[in-house]
Request: fold
Amino acid sequence: MTTPSTTPAVRQAAAHLKEKLLRLAAPALGAEPSDIEARNDLFQVRFDPSRKMSFADVCRRIPGDSLSAEGERVPNYEGYRRDQAGCQFAEVEVDAELGIVRVLRVVAVHDAGQIIDPLTARSQVNGGVLMGVGYALFETRRMDPRLGIMVNPTMDDYKLVGPLDVPEIEVRFVEVANGFNNTGVMGFGEPAHVATAAAIGCAVYDAIGVPVRSLPITPDRVLAAMETRA
Amino acid sequence: MNRFEVLTPADLAHAARLLARQGHVALAGGVDVIDLLKLGIIAPATLVNLKNLPELHGIEPGPRGLRLGALTKLHEVAEHPFIREHYTAVSDAAREAATPQIRNLATVGGNLLQRPRCWYFRHPDVNCLKKGGDRCYALTGLNRYHAILGGGPSFIVHPSNLAPALIALGASARIVGPSGERSVELEKFFTLPSVDPKRENDLKPGEVLVEVNLPPPPAGAKSAYLEAREKQSFDWPLVGAAAMVASDGASRTVRDARIVLCAVAPIPWRSPEAEKEIIGHPLDAERARAAGEACVRGAHPLADNAYKIAMTKVLARRTILKAAGIEEA
Ligand SMILES: Cc1cc2nc3c(=O)[nH]c(=O)nc-3n(C[C@H](O)[C@H](O)[C@H](O)COP(=O)(O)OP(=O)(O)OC[C@H]3O[C@@H](n4cnc5c(N)ncnc54)[C@H](O)[C@@H]3O)c2cc1C
Reply:
Protein backbone atom coordinates (compact mmCIF):
# COMPACT_ATOMS: atom_id res chain seq x y z
CA MET A 1 0.00 0.00 0.00
CA THR A 2 3.00 2.33 0.04
CA THR A 3 2.50 3.75 -3.43
CA PRO A 4 -1.26 4.40 -3.19
CA SER A 5 -0.89 5.93 0.28
CA THR A 6 2.05 8.20 -0.50
CA THR A 7 1.74 9.24 -4.13
CA PRO A 8 -1.60 11.11 -3.76
CA ALA A 9 -0.09 13.24 -0.98
CA VAL A 10 2.99 13.91 -3.11
CA ARG A 11 0.86 14.82 -6.07
CA GLN A 12 -1.22 17.19 -3.97
CA ALA A 13 1.93 18.83 -2.56
CA ALA A 14 3.24 19.21 -6.11
CA ALA A 15 -0.01 20.85 -7.17
CA HIS A 16 0.26 23.31 -4.27
CA LEU A 17 3.83 24.06 -5.23
CA LYS A 18 2.87 24.71 -8.82
CA GLU A 19 0.17 27.06 -7.51
CA LYS A 20 2.90 29.02 -5.69
CA LEU A 21 5.06 29.22 -8.82
CA LEU A 22 2.12 30.48 -10.83
CA ARG A 23 1.58 33.20 -8.21
CA LEU A 24 5.24 34.22 -8.55
CA ALA A 25 4.98 34.36 -12.33
CA ALA A 26 1.66 36.26 -12.43
CA PRO A 27 2.85 39.87 -11.70
CA ALA A 28 5.70 39.55 -14.21
CA LEU A 29 3.37 38.30 -16.93
CA GLY A 30 0.62 40.73 -15.99
CA ALA A 31 -1.96 37.99 -15.69
CA GLU A 32 -3.97 36.10 -13.11
CA PRO A 33 -2.36 32.85 -11.90
CA SER A 34 -5.36 31.01 -13.29
CA ASP A 35 -4.61 32.37 -16.77
CA ILE A 36 -1.08 30.98 -16.81
CA GLU A 37 -0.22 27.64 -18.22
CA ALA A 38 2.95 25.84 -17.16
CA ARG A 39 4.20 23.33 -19.67
CA ASN A 40 7.64 21.83 -20.10
CA ASP A 41 10.07 24.63 -19.42
CA LEU A 42 7.68 27.49 -20.07
CA PHE A 43 5.10 29.58 -18.23
CA GLN A 44 2.84 31.33 -20.68
CA VAL A 45 -0.38 33.28 -20.68
CA ARG A 46 -3.10 31.15 -22.08
CA PHE A 47 -4.71 33.75 -24.37
CA ASP A 48 -1.44 35.54 -25.34
CA PRO A 49 1.42 33.08 -25.85
CA SER A 50 3.83 35.91 -26.56
CA ARG A 51 3.78 36.67 -22.80
CA LYS A 52 5.99 33.93 -21.44
CA MET A 53 8.80 33.18 -18.97
CA SER A 54 11.17 30.27 -18.61
CA PHE A 55 10.97 28.01 -15.58
CA ALA A 56 14.41 29.26 -14.50
CA ASP A 57 13.26 32.88 -14.58
CA VAL A 58 10.25 32.05 -12.45
CA CYS A 59 12.52 30.26 -9.98
CA ARG A 60 14.73 33.36 -9.74
CA ARG A 61 11.75 35.11 -8.18
CA ILE A 62 11.61 32.65 -5.31
CA PRO A 63 12.29 34.56 -2.13
CA GLY A 64 15.08 32.85 -0.20
CA ASP A 65 16.50 29.51 -1.34
CA SER A 66 13.51 27.32 -1.76
CA LEU A 67 9.83 26.98 -2.06
CA SER A 68 7.92 24.39 -0.12
CA ALA A 69 4.41 23.09 0.01
CA GLU A 70 2.55 20.35 1.83
CA GLY A 71 0.10 17.79 0.69
CA GLU A 72 -2.01 15.25 2.47
CA ARG A 73 -3.49 11.91 1.65
CA VAL A 74 -7.20 12.62 1.58
CA PRO A 75 -9.74 9.81 1.85
CA ASN A 76 -10.46 7.88 -1.32
CA TYR A 77 -12.98 9.48 -3.64
CA GLU A 78 -16.38 7.81 -3.42
CA GLY A 79 -18.04 5.96 -6.22
CA TYR A 80 -15.07 4.44 -7.99
CA ARG A 81 -13.97 0.89 -8.48
CA ARG A 82 -11.40 0.08 -5.81
CA ASP A 83 -10.61 -3.55 -6.30
CA GLN A 84 -7.67 -4.87 -8.14
CA ALA A 85 -7.94 -7.45 -10.81
CA GLY A 86 -5.40 -9.89 -12.05
CA CYS A 87 -4.89 -13.44 -13.05
CA GLN A 88 -1.99 -15.79 -12.86
CA PHE A 89 -1.10 -18.93 -14.69
CA ALA A 90 1.36 -21.60 -13.64
CA GLU A 91 2.92 -24.34 -15.67
CA VAL A 92 4.25 -27.22 -13.58
CA GLU A 93 6.01 -30.47 -14.19
CA VAL A 94 5.22 -33.33 -11.82
CA ASP A 95 7.39 -36.39 -11.53
CA ALA A 96 4.46 -38.74 -11.19
CA GLU A 97 6.52 -41.50 -9.58
CA LEU A 98 8.37 -39.34 -7.06
CA GLY A 99 5.68 -36.76 -6.42
CA ILE A 100 8.09 -33.88 -6.99
CA VAL A 101 6.62 -30.72 -8.44
CA ARG A 102 8.64 -28.16 -10.34
CA VAL A 103 7.18 -24.87 -11.43
CA LEU A 104 8.38 -24.09 -14.93
CA ARG A 105 6.62 -20.85 -15.76
CA VAL A 106 4.33 -18.32 -14.16
CA VAL A 107 2.49 -15.70 -16.17
CA ALA A 108 1.20 -12.87 -14.01
CA VAL A 109 -1.26 -10.38 -15.51
CA HIS A 110 -2.27 -7.56 -13.21
CA ASP A 111 -4.26 -4.36 -13.10
CA ALA A 112 -2.67 -2.42 -10.29
CA GLY A 113 -3.94 0.88 -11.62
CA GLN A 114 -1.36 3.32 -12.85
CA ILE A 115 2.16 1.88 -12.76
CA ILE A 116 4.51 4.60 -11.59
CA ASP A 117 7.78 2.69 -11.83
CA PRO A 118 7.59 -0.34 -14.09
CA LEU A 119 10.89 -1.80 -12.89
CA THR A 120 10.00 -1.90 -9.21
CA ALA A 121 6.42 -2.94 -9.99
CA ARG A 122 7.72 -5.89 -11.99
CA SER A 123 10.13 -6.66 -9.19
CA GLN A 124 7.22 -6.70 -6.76
CA VAL A 125 5.52 -9.34 -8.92
CA ASN A 126 8.70 -11.38 -9.25
CA GLY A 127 9.10 -11.37 -5.48
CA GLY A 128 5.48 -12.28 -4.94
CA VAL A 129 5.77 -15.17 -7.37
CA LEU A 130 8.95 -16.44 -5.72
CA MET A 131 7.44 -16.40 -2.27
CA GLY A 132 4.30 -17.91 -3.78
CA VAL A 133 6.29 -20.86 -5.10
CA GLY A 134 7.66 -21.41 -1.61
CA TYR A 135 4.18 -21.07 -0.13
CA ALA A 136 2.85 -23.61 -2.62
CA LEU A 137 5.61 -26.18 -2.45
CA PHE A 138 7.95 -25.79 0.50
CA GLU A 139 7.25 -23.46 3.37
CA THR A 140 5.60 -24.52 6.58
CA ARG A 141 6.21 -24.20 10.30
CA ARG A 142 6.54 -27.67 11.66
CA MET A 143 5.46 -27.81 15.29
CA ASP A 144 6.06 -30.83 17.48
CA PRO A 145 2.71 -31.23 19.21
CA ARG A 146 4.17 -32.88 22.30
CA LEU A 147 7.25 -30.78 22.87
CA GLY A 148 5.58 -27.55 21.75
CA ILE A 149 8.61 -26.53 19.73
CA MET A 150 9.06 -25.63 16.12
CA VAL A 151 11.43 -28.24 14.74
CA ASN A 152 12.42 -26.29 11.63
CA PRO A 153 13.32 -22.83 12.95
CA THR A 154 16.56 -22.39 10.99
CA MET A 155 17.33 -21.24 7.47
CA ASP A 156 18.48 -24.79 6.78
CA ASP A 157 15.31 -26.58 7.87
CA TYR A 158 12.77 -23.93 6.94
CA LYS A 159 12.57 -24.31 3.20
CA LEU A 160 12.67 -21.14 1.16
CA VAL A 161 12.92 -21.26 -2.62
CA GLY A 162 16.44 -21.52 -3.95
CA PRO A 163 17.77 -20.33 -7.31
CA LEU A 164 16.96 -23.56 -9.14
CA ASP A 165 13.37 -23.50 -7.92
CA VAL A 166 12.65 -20.19 -9.59
CA PRO A 167 10.32 -20.44 -12.58
CA GLU A 168 10.41 -18.31 -15.68
CA ILE A 169 8.22 -15.35 -14.75
CA GLU A 170 6.33 -13.26 -17.27
CA VAL A 171 4.73 -10.06 -15.97
CA ARG A 172 2.06 -8.09 -17.82
CA PHE A 173 0.42 -4.94 -16.52
CA VAL A 174 -3.01 -3.92 -17.72
CA GLU A 175 -3.50 -0.37 -16.48
CA VAL A 176 -7.23 0.22 -16.18
CA ALA A 177 -8.08 3.79 -15.21
CA ASN A 178 -9.71 4.20 -11.81
CA GLY A 179 -10.59 7.41 -10.05
CA PHE A 180 -10.40 6.73 -6.39
CA ASN A 181 -7.31 8.78 -5.73
CA ASN A 182 -5.45 11.47 -7.63
CA THR A 183 -2.74 9.19 -9.02
CA GLY A 184 -4.86 6.18 -9.95
CA VAL A 185 -2.40 3.91 -8.18
CA MET A 186 -3.60 0.81 -6.34
CA GLY A 187 -2.06 -1.30 -3.62
CA PHE A 188 -0.01 -4.17 -4.97
CA GLY A 189 1.35 -6.05 -2.00
CA GLU A 190 -0.30 -9.41 -2.10
CA PRO A 191 -1.93 -10.21 -5.43
CA ALA A 192 1.13 -11.76 -7.06
CA HIS A 193 1.88 -13.83 -3.99
CA VAL A 194 -1.51 -15.24 -3.07
CA ALA A 195 -2.52 -16.06 -6.61
CA THR A 196 0.68 -17.97 -7.31
CA ALA A 197 0.04 -20.76 -4.82
CA ALA A 198 -3.53 -21.15 -6.07
CA ALA A 199 -2.37 -21.31 -9.69
CA ILE A 200 0.29 -23.90 -8.83
CA GLY A 201 -2.28 -25.95 -6.91
CA CYS A 202 -4.61 -25.91 -9.91
CA ALA A 203 -1.79 -26.77 -12.30
CA VAL A 204 -0.81 -29.76 -10.16
CA TYR A 205 -4.44 -30.87 -10.20
CA ASP A 206 -4.47 -30.58 -13.96
CA ALA A 207 -1.24 -32.57 -14.21
CA ILE A 208 -2.10 -35.48 -11.92
CA GLY A 209 -5.88 -35.53 -12.17
CA VAL A 210 -6.56 -35.18 -8.45
CA PRO A 211 -6.37 -32.11 -6.26
CA VAL A 212 -3.89 -31.76 -3.42
CA ARG A 213 -5.93 -29.86 -0.86
CA SER A 214 -3.25 -28.67 1.56
CA LEU A 215 -0.13 -26.58 1.24
CA PRO A 216 2.72 -27.09 0.88
CA ILE A 217 2.33 -29.57 -1.96
CA THR A 218 5.14 -31.86 -0.87
CA PRO A 219 6.03 -35.13 -2.59
CA ASP A 220 4.38 -37.24 0.13
CA ARG A 221 1.09 -35.39 -0.43
CA VAL A 222 1.32 -35.71 -4.21
CA LEU A 223 1.98 -39.44 -3.92
CA ALA A 224 -0.88 -39.86 -1.43
CA ALA A 225 -3.24 -37.94 -3.72
CA MET A 226 -2.23 -40.09 -6.66
CA GLU A 227 -2.96 -43.23 -4.66
CA THR A 228 -6.59 -42.12 -4.35
CA ARG A 229 -6.81 -41.81 -8.12
CA ALA A 230 -6.12 -45.48 -8.80
CA MET B 1 29.45 -20.38 20.98
CA ASN B 2 32.27 -21.13 23.40
CA ARG B 3 35.80 -19.75 23.24
CA PHE B 4 38.29 -22.08 21.60
CA GLU B 5 41.78 -22.04 20.23
CA VAL B 6 42.91 -23.31 16.85
CA LEU B 7 46.03 -25.39 16.35
CA THR B 8 47.38 -26.13 12.89
CA PRO B 9 49.82 -29.04 13.10
CA ALA B 10 52.01 -29.77 10.08
CA ASP B 11 52.70 -33.35 11.06
CA LEU B 12 50.17 -36.17 10.93
CA ALA B 13 51.40 -38.00 14.04
CA HIS B 14 51.27 -34.76 15.97
CA ALA B 15 47.71 -34.12 14.77
CA ALA B 16 46.68 -37.60 15.91
CA ARG B 17 48.22 -37.03 19.35
CA LEU B 18 46.37 -33.73 19.69
CA LEU B 19 43.06 -35.24 18.60
CA ALA B 20 43.40 -37.98 21.19
CA ARG B 21 43.10 -35.33 23.90
CA GLN B 22 39.85 -34.41 25.57
CA GLY B 23 38.08 -31.43 24.01
CA HIS B 24 40.03 -31.49 20.74
CA VAL B 25 38.03 -31.59 17.51
CA ALA B 26 39.29 -31.83 13.93
CA LEU B 27 38.53 -29.00 11.55
CA ALA B 28 38.47 -29.55 7.78
CA GLY B 29 36.23 -27.21 5.70
CA GLY B 30 34.36 -26.29 8.87
CA VAL B 31 30.93 -26.44 7.24
CA ASP B 32 29.54 -28.79 9.84
CA VAL B 33 31.95 -28.07 12.71
CA ILE B 34 31.01 -24.39 12.80
CA ASP B 35 27.29 -25.19 12.70
CA LEU B 36 27.67 -27.65 15.57
CA LEU B 37 29.61 -25.07 17.56
CA LYS B 38 26.95 -22.43 16.99
CA LEU B 39 24.21 -24.84 17.98
CA GLY B 40 26.09 -25.76 21.16
CA ILE B 41 26.16 -29.43 20.20
CA ILE B 42 29.93 -29.45 20.56
CA ALA B 43 31.99 -27.14 22.75
CA PRO B 44 35.62 -27.98 22.03
CA ALA B 45 38.46 -26.20 23.80
CA THR B 46 40.64 -26.67 20.73
CA LEU B 47 40.04 -27.06 17.02
CA VAL B 48 42.78 -28.94 15.23
CA ASN B 49 42.94 -27.57 11.70
CA LEU B 50 44.04 -30.32 9.31
CA LYS B 51 44.89 -28.08 6.36
CA ASN B 52 48.67 -28.30 6.65
CA LEU B 53 48.87 -32.09 6.64
CA PRO B 54 50.27 -33.01 3.21
CA GLU B 55 48.99 -36.60 3.39
CA LEU B 56 45.39 -35.35 3.31
CA HIS B 57 45.65 -33.49 0.03
CA GLY B 58 45.38 -34.51 -3.61
CA ILE B 59 43.46 -36.54 -6.13
CA GLU B 60 45.58 -39.30 -7.65
CA PRO B 61 44.22 -41.48 -10.40
CA GLY B 62 46.33 -44.48 -11.27
CA PRO B 63 46.33 -48.08 -12.41
CA ARG B 64 45.46 -49.20 -8.89
CA GLY B 65 42.39 -47.01 -8.81
CA LEU B 66 41.93 -43.61 -7.28
CA ARG B 67 43.18 -41.94 -4.16
CA LEU B 68 41.18 -39.05 -2.76
CA GLY B 69 42.90 -37.09 -0.02
CA ALA B 70 40.47 -36.42 2.83
CA LEU B 71 40.73 -32.67 2.24
CA THR B 72 39.65 -32.90 -1.40
CA LYS B 73 36.78 -30.49 -1.95
CA LEU B 74 33.41 -31.78 -3.14
CA HIS B 75 33.67 -29.38 -6.06
CA GLU B 76 36.92 -31.02 -7.20
CA VAL B 77 35.35 -34.46 -6.96
CA ALA B 78 32.34 -33.30 -8.98
CA GLU B 79 34.42 -31.87 -11.82
CA HIS B 80 37.44 -34.17 -12.08
CA PRO B 81 37.42 -35.75 -15.58
CA PHE B 82 38.87 -39.09 -14.43
CA ILE B 83 36.29 -39.40 -11.64
CA ARG B 84 33.48 -38.44 -13.97
CA GLU B 85 34.51 -41.11 -16.42
CA HIS B 86 35.39 -44.02 -14.14
CA TYR B 87 33.50 -43.30 -10.94
CA THR B 88 30.48 -41.46 -12.31
CA ALA B 89 28.30 -42.13 -9.27
CA VAL B 90 30.86 -40.40 -7.07
CA SER B 91 31.13 -37.25 -9.16
CA ASP B 92 27.34 -37.14 -9.62
CA ALA B 93 26.76 -37.46 -5.87
CA ALA B 94 29.28 -34.71 -5.15
CA ARG B 95 27.61 -32.47 -7.71
CA GLU B 96 24.15 -33.04 -6.20
CA ALA B 97 25.29 -32.12 -2.69
CA ALA B 98 24.55 -28.74 -1.16
CA THR B 99 25.31 -25.55 -3.09
CA PRO B 100 28.29 -24.32 -5.14
CA GLN B 101 29.53 -22.21 -2.21
CA ILE B 102 29.45 -25.18 0.14
CA ARG B 103 31.00 -27.56 -2.38
CA ASN B 104 33.94 -25.19 -2.66
CA LEU B 105 34.58 -25.52 1.07
CA ALA B 106 33.29 -28.95 2.09
CA THR B 107 35.79 -31.80 2.04
CA VAL B 108 35.40 -35.50 1.35
CA GLY B 109 36.51 -36.42 4.88
CA GLY B 110 34.22 -33.88 6.52
CA ASN B 111 31.35 -35.04 4.36
CA LEU B 112 31.74 -38.64 5.49
CA LEU B 113 32.08 -37.58 9.14
CA GLN B 114 29.37 -34.89 9.29
CA ARG B 115 26.70 -35.29 11.95
CA PRO B 116 23.06 -36.04 11.13
CA ARG B 117 20.57 -33.34 10.15
CA CYS B 118 17.77 -34.64 12.39
CA TRP B 119 15.81 -31.62 13.60
CA TYR B 120 15.59 -32.95 17.14
CA PHE B 121 19.33 -33.63 17.28
CA ARG B 122 20.08 -30.11 15.97
CA HIS B 123 17.53 -28.35 18.19
CA PRO B 124 19.32 -26.61 21.07
CA ASP B 125 16.38 -27.23 23.44
CA VAL B 126 16.04 -30.96 22.84
CA ASN B 127 18.24 -33.41 24.65
CA CYS B 128 17.75 -36.46 22.47
CA LEU B 129 19.27 -39.91 22.59
CA LYS B 130 22.16 -38.87 20.38
CA LYS B 131 23.09 -36.10 22.79
CA GLY B 132 22.91 -38.31 25.85
CA GLY B 133 19.17 -37.97 26.50
CA ASP B 134 16.87 -40.87 27.10
CA ARG B 135 14.89 -41.10 23.87
CA CYS B 136 14.69 -40.54 20.16
CA TYR B 137 11.97 -37.92 19.71
CA ALA B 138 11.62 -38.73 16.03
CA LEU B 139 10.12 -42.13 16.81
CA THR B 140 6.86 -40.64 18.08
CA GLY B 141 7.31 -37.08 16.81
CA LEU B 142 7.75 -35.51 13.40
CA ASN B 143 9.62 -37.98 11.26
CA ARG B 144 9.07 -37.23 7.58
CA TYR B 145 12.82 -37.09 6.95
CA HIS B 146 13.79 -40.06 9.10
CA ALA B 147 14.78 -43.68 8.62
CA ILE B 148 12.69 -46.44 7.06
CA LEU B 149 15.44 -49.03 7.32
CA GLY B 150 17.90 -49.92 10.07
CA GLY B 151 16.40 -47.53 12.61
CA GLY B 152 16.29 -47.96 16.36
CA PRO B 153 16.89 -46.84 18.98
CA SER B 154 17.75 -43.69 16.98
CA PHE B 155 16.01 -43.00 13.66
CA ILE B 156 18.32 -40.50 12.00
CA VAL B 157 19.33 -40.90 8.40
CA HIS B 158 22.96 -40.62 7.45
CA PRO B 159 23.33 -37.25 5.73
CA SER B 160 26.19 -37.97 3.31
CA ASN B 161 25.22 -38.60 -0.28
CA LEU B 162 28.84 -39.09 -1.22
CA ALA B 163 29.18 -42.12 1.05
CA PRO B 164 26.66 -44.37 -0.78
CA ALA B 165 28.33 -43.59 -4.10
CA LEU B 166 31.78 -44.34 -2.70
CA ILE B 167 30.54 -47.59 -1.17
CA ALA B 168 28.91 -48.61 -4.45
CA LEU B 169 32.39 -48.40 -5.99
CA GLY B 170 34.06 -50.35 -3.21
CA ALA B 171 35.87 -47.52 -1.43
CA SER B 172 37.97 -47.92 1.67
CA ALA B 173 39.26 -45.35 4.11
CA ARG B 174 42.82 -45.06 5.35
CA ILE B 175 42.90 -43.90 8.92
CA VAL B 176 45.88 -42.88 11.03
CA GLY B 177 45.66 -42.84 14.81
CA PRO B 178 48.00 -42.33 17.75
CA SER B 179 48.96 -46.01 17.70
CA GLY B 180 49.30 -46.64 13.98
CA GLU B 181 47.22 -46.86 10.88
CA ARG B 182 44.42 -49.00 9.51
CA SER B 183 42.40 -49.34 6.38
CA VAL B 184 38.70 -50.06 6.56
CA GLU B 185 36.12 -50.71 3.90
CA LEU B 186 33.86 -47.68 3.91
CA GLU B 187 30.85 -49.98 4.01
CA LYS B 188 31.99 -51.28 7.40
CA PHE B 189 33.06 -47.89 8.71
CA PHE B 190 29.54 -46.64 9.48
CA THR B 191 27.79 -47.99 12.54
CA LEU B 192 24.13 -48.47 13.35
CA PRO B 193 22.53 -46.80 16.37
CA SER B 194 21.86 -50.26 17.79
CA VAL B 195 25.64 -50.43 18.33
CA ASP B 196 25.90 -46.94 19.80
CA PRO B 197 23.27 -44.27 19.19
CA LYS B 198 25.71 -41.46 19.98
CA ARG B 199 27.88 -41.90 16.92
CA GLU B 200 27.52 -42.78 13.25
CA ASN B 201 30.91 -44.30 12.51
CA ASP B 202 33.88 -46.09 13.83
CA LEU B 203 36.40 -43.23 14.03
CA LYS B 204 38.17 -43.43 17.38
CA PRO B 205 39.49 -40.47 19.40
CA GLY B 206 42.79 -39.38 17.91
CA GLU B 207 42.12 -40.90 14.53
CA VAL B 208 42.48 -38.87 11.34
CA LEU B 209 40.80 -39.91 8.14
CA VAL B 210 43.68 -39.51 5.72
CA GLU B 211 42.34 -40.66 2.40
CA VAL B 212 39.67 -42.60 0.59
CA ASN B 213 40.83 -45.22 -1.88
CA LEU B 214 38.79 -46.57 -4.74
CA PRO B 215 39.79 -49.75 -6.53
CA PRO B 216 39.60 -49.80 -10.32
CA PRO B 217 35.95 -50.43 -11.19
CA PRO B 218 35.16 -54.03 -12.26
CA ALA B 219 35.45 -54.67 -16.01
CA GLY B 220 32.45 -53.29 -17.87
CA ALA B 221 31.23 -51.44 -14.80
CA LYS B 222 29.26 -48.22 -15.01
CA SER B 223 27.77 -46.32 -12.14
CA ALA B 224 25.20 -43.65 -11.41
CA TYR B 225 23.74 -41.68 -8.54
CA LEU B 226 20.29 -40.10 -8.41
CA GLU B 227 18.40 -38.42 -5.62
CA ALA B 228 15.04 -36.84 -4.93
CA ARG B 229 14.79 -33.53 -3.10
CA GLU B 230 11.90 -31.25 -2.30
CA LYS B 231 13.84 -28.20 -3.45
CA GLN B 232 16.28 -28.20 -6.33
CA SER B 233 18.72 -25.82 -4.60
CA PHE B 234 20.05 -25.83 -1.08
CA ASP B 235 18.29 -28.96 0.08
CA TRP B 236 19.01 -32.46 1.33
CA PRO B 237 17.99 -35.69 -0.36
CA LEU B 238 14.72 -37.28 0.71
CA VAL B 239 16.08 -40.47 -0.79
CA GLY B 240 19.11 -41.17 -2.94
CA ALA B 241 20.45 -44.23 -4.71
CA ALA B 242 23.88 -45.14 -6.01
CA ALA B 243 24.37 -48.09 -8.32
CA MET B 244 27.37 -49.82 -9.85
CA VAL B 245 26.46 -52.30 -12.56
CA ALA B 246 29.03 -54.43 -14.38
CA SER B 247 27.52 -56.30 -17.27
CA ASP B 248 28.47 -58.14 -20.46
CA GLY B 249 27.98 -55.83 -23.38
CA ALA B 250 25.66 -57.62 -25.75
CA SER B 251 23.71 -59.93 -23.47
CA ARG B 252 23.44 -57.29 -20.76
CA THR B 253 23.93 -60.05 -18.20
CA VAL B 254 24.93 -58.48 -14.92
CA ARG B 255 28.14 -59.93 -13.51
CA ASP B 256 28.55 -57.67 -10.54
CA ALA B 257 26.49 -54.96 -8.93
CA ARG B 258 26.27 -52.79 -5.87
CA ILE B 259 23.26 -50.79 -4.83
CA VAL B 260 23.59 -48.38 -1.94
CA LEU B 261 20.82 -46.09 -0.70
CA CYS B 262 21.05 -42.63 0.80
CA ALA B 263 18.83 -40.95 3.41
CA VAL B 264 16.79 -44.05 4.21
CA ALA B 265 18.80 -45.44 7.13
CA PRO B 266 21.16 -44.32 9.89
CA ILE B 267 24.05 -45.51 7.71
CA PRO B 268 24.58 -45.56 3.95
CA TRP B 269 22.37 -48.58 3.21
CA ARG B 270 23.70 -51.27 0.96
CA SER B 271 21.01 -53.54 -0.40
CA PRO B 272 22.29 -57.07 -1.12
CA GLU B 273 18.64 -58.08 -1.70
CA ALA B 274 18.43 -55.66 -4.62
CA GLU B 275 21.83 -56.71 -5.96
CA LYS B 276 20.70 -60.35 -5.93
CA GLU B 277 17.74 -59.46 -8.14
CA ILE B 278 19.97 -58.35 -10.97
CA ILE B 279 23.26 -60.27 -10.66
CA GLY B 280 23.35 -63.15 -13.12
CA HIS B 281 20.40 -61.86 -15.10
CA PRO B 282 20.12 -59.85 -18.27
CA LEU B 283 19.17 -56.40 -17.15
CA ASP B 284 15.98 -54.75 -18.29
CA ALA B 285 13.37 -52.44 -16.80
CA GLU B 286 11.51 -55.34 -15.23
CA ARG B 287 14.64 -56.61 -13.46
CA ALA B 288 15.44 -53.13 -12.25
CA ARG B 289 11.92 -52.77 -10.95
CA ALA B 290 12.27 -56.04 -9.02
CA ALA B 291 15.51 -54.72 -7.52
CA GLY B 292 13.71 -51.56 -6.43
CA GLU B 293 11.04 -53.63 -4.73
CA ALA B 294 13.69 -55.72 -3.02
CA CYS B 295 15.36 -52.62 -1.56
CA VAL B 296 12.40 -51.87 0.67
CA ARG B 297 11.19 -55.34 1.52
CA GLY B 298 12.41 -54.96 5.10
CA ALA B 299 11.37 -51.34 5.52
CA HIS B 300 9.49 -50.09 8.57
CA PRO B 301 8.13 -46.64 7.91
CA LEU B 302 7.35 -44.24 10.74
CA ALA B 303 4.16 -42.14 10.86
CA ASP B 304 5.21 -39.52 8.31
CA ASN B 305 7.71 -41.20 6.02
CA ALA B 306 5.99 -44.06 4.19
CA TYR B 307 6.38 -42.01 1.00
CA LYS B 308 10.09 -42.84 1.13
CA ILE B 309 9.26 -46.45 0.34
CA ALA B 310 7.67 -45.50 -2.96
CA MET B 311 10.53 -43.13 -3.70
CA THR B 312 13.22 -45.66 -2.90
CA LYS B 313 11.75 -48.21 -5.30
CA VAL B 314 11.63 -45.67 -8.10
CA LEU B 315 15.08 -44.22 -7.51
CA ALA B 316 16.73 -47.63 -7.19
CA ARG B 317 15.16 -48.74 -10.48
CA ARG B 318 16.07 -45.51 -12.30
CA THR B 319 19.62 -45.48 -10.99
CA ILE B 320 20.28 -49.09 -11.96
CA LEU B 321 18.99 -48.45 -15.47
CA LYS B 322 20.91 -45.21 -15.74
CA ALA B 323 24.13 -46.90 -14.67
CA ALA B 324 23.53 -49.64 -17.25
CA GLY B 325 22.75 -47.05 -19.91
CA ILE B 326 19.25 -48.41 -20.50
CA GLU B 327 16.59 -45.88 -21.46
CA GLU B 328 13.20 -46.52 -19.97
CA ALA B 329 10.28 -46.68 -22.34
C1 LIG C 1 22.90 -26.12 3.11
C2 LIG C 1 23.70 -27.39 3.14
C3 LIG C 1 23.35 -28.40 2.29
C4 LIG C 1 24.08 -29.57 2.30
N1 LIG C 1 23.69 -30.58 1.46
C5 LIG C 1 24.37 -31.73 1.47
C6 LIG C 1 23.99 -32.80 0.64
O1 LIG C 1 23.04 -32.69 -0.14
N2 LIG C 1 24.69 -33.96 0.71
C7 LIG C 1 25.74 -34.10 1.56
O2 LIG C 1 26.35 -35.17 1.57
N3 LIG C 1 26.13 -33.10 2.35
C8 LIG C 1 25.47 -31.92 2.33
N4 LIG C 1 25.88 -30.91 3.15
C9 LIG C 1 26.89 -31.17 4.17
C10 LIG C 1 28.27 -30.82 3.77
O3 LIG C 1 28.62 -31.56 2.62
C11 LIG C 1 29.17 -31.19 4.93
O4 LIG C 1 28.84 -30.39 6.03
C12 LIG C 1 30.62 -31.00 4.56
O5 LIG C 1 30.98 -31.93 3.58
C13 LIG C 1 31.50 -31.17 5.76
O6 LIG C 1 32.83 -31.07 5.30
P1 LIG C 1 33.86 -30.09 6.00
O7 LIG C 1 35.14 -30.29 5.31
O8 LIG C 1 33.33 -28.72 6.06
O9 LIG C 1 33.88 -30.77 7.43
P2 LIG C 1 34.01 -30.13 8.87
O10 LIG C 1 32.77 -29.40 9.20
O11 LIG C 1 35.30 -29.40 9.01
O12 LIG C 1 34.09 -31.48 9.69
C14 LIG C 1 33.00 -32.35 9.80
C15 LIG C 1 33.31 -33.42 10.85
O13 LIG C 1 34.34 -34.27 10.42
C16 LIG C 1 35.48 -34.20 11.27
N5 LIG C 1 36.61 -34.29 10.35
C17 LIG C 1 36.71 -33.63 9.18
N6 LIG C 1 37.74 -34.07 8.47
C18 LIG C 1 38.34 -35.03 9.22
C19 LIG C 1 39.45 -35.88 9.02
N7 LIG C 1 40.17 -35.84 7.89
N8 LIG C 1 39.78 -36.75 10.00
C20 LIG C 1 39.05 -36.81 11.14
N9 LIG C 1 37.98 -36.04 11.37
C21 LIG C 1 37.62 -35.15 10.42
C22 LIG C 1 35.31 -32.93 12.06
O14 LIG C 1 35.91 -33.01 13.31
C23 LIG C 1 33.82 -32.85 12.17
O15 LIG C 1 33.35 -33.68 13.19
C24 LIG C 1 25.19 -29.72 3.16
C25 LIG C 1 25.53 -28.70 4.02
C26 LIG C 1 24.80 -27.54 4.02
C27 LIG C 1 25.21 -26.44 4.97
